[in-house]
Amino acid sequence: MFDVGSFNTERIIRSVEAEGSELTSNKMALATCIQISAEWYSEALKYTSRRSEKMQQTASRRLQAAANELLLQLKNDRSEFYRSFVVNSDQLAKQLSNLSHGIETALRLQPDTVPSSGREYDLVEILAYRAHFKARSPLEWLAGVYLIETFALNFRVAKGTLLKNYTVFAIAVLKELKIKNGSSNYSAESIRRAARGGRDRRKVKKVDDMQFIAERQMHLYAACGRHWKREALKRTLEDLGLSEL
């Protein structure tokens, strides 16, 4: 978990105001928005690659194998022996069977699967949430989406200084969060490239991410004491010119 204290927030504000931008919210609102951005970035780190997905699949298969082995033991010719000390062995066998079936069902689901039950709906929603992160790299999410939204909601920029001001803001935030490119801080060009979303991810299956966008933006708006409406932040970004970064 990343944490931005009030002193660090003041340092970020000073960096941006030195370039001519004006804070339109307040220090607490900005700190909260940065915290929200950092939390979503943490999620992007987990789900952008397939590593966590593969680890979960491996763990699920191991659990399924263990359940199947126990079920087999309960059903073999020594089942009467187990009944002598396993209370409700028939119920346990049913639970193990349900567990194995449930794991198999969960592993066959995809982010775009049409669910056939409430349980499948919940699982598909989780898969879609994780899958939508694969459309960008973690840095592209942070510098190209989350911090752009945060900047748009908290600052007013002087005419002709937009790109420079946002880049200064993003660099300052990454420094405070200690997010680095190896052992070095990210350069201004790295920030601008991430904001443009230059990575080719055309092979990634697209998912409907509107609900996740809405959830994130509602939290950002609430942090600034504002009411979110669909397309509201898009208009704010367009007014600032940030949608064309």
Features:
245 residues; mainly alpha; 2 domains; two-stranded antiparallel sheet
What's this, in brief?
With 245 residues, the chain is mostly helical. The chain is built from 11 helices and 2 strands, in the order αβααααααβαααα.
Number of domains: 2
Helix fraction bin: 55-70%
What structural class is derived from the secondary structure elements? Answer: mainly alpha
Question: What about the largest sheet?
Answer: 2 strands, antiparallel
- Strands, total number: 2
Order of helices and strands: HEHHHHHHEHHHH
Query: Spans of 5+ residues with little confidence (pLDDT < 50)?
Result: none
Largest sheet: spatial strand order: 1-2
Mean pLDDT: 84
Distinct helical segment count: 11
Give an account of the 3D structure.
- With about 240 residues, the chain is mainly α.
- It is built from eleven helices and two strands; from the N terminus they run αβααααααβαααα.
- The longest helix is centred in the first third of the chain and has 25 residues, at about 50-75.
- The protein is elongated, with a radius of gyration of 24 Å.
- The protein has two domains: about 5-50 and about 135-245, no CATH class; about 50-135, no CATH class.
- The chain has a two-stranded antiparallel sheet.
- It has helices spanning about 5-15, 25-45, 50-75, 80-85, 90-110, 120-130, 140-155, 160-175, 190-195, 210-225, 230-240; strands at about 20-25, 155.
- Helices cover about 65% and strands about 0% of the residues.
List the SSEs and their pairings:
Elements (H helix, E strand, L loop, with lengths): L5 H12 L4 E2 L3 H21 L3 H25 L3 H5 L5 H20 L9 H15 L5 H17 E2 L5 H15 L11 H9 L13 H14 L8 H9 L5
Antiparallel strand pairs: 1-2
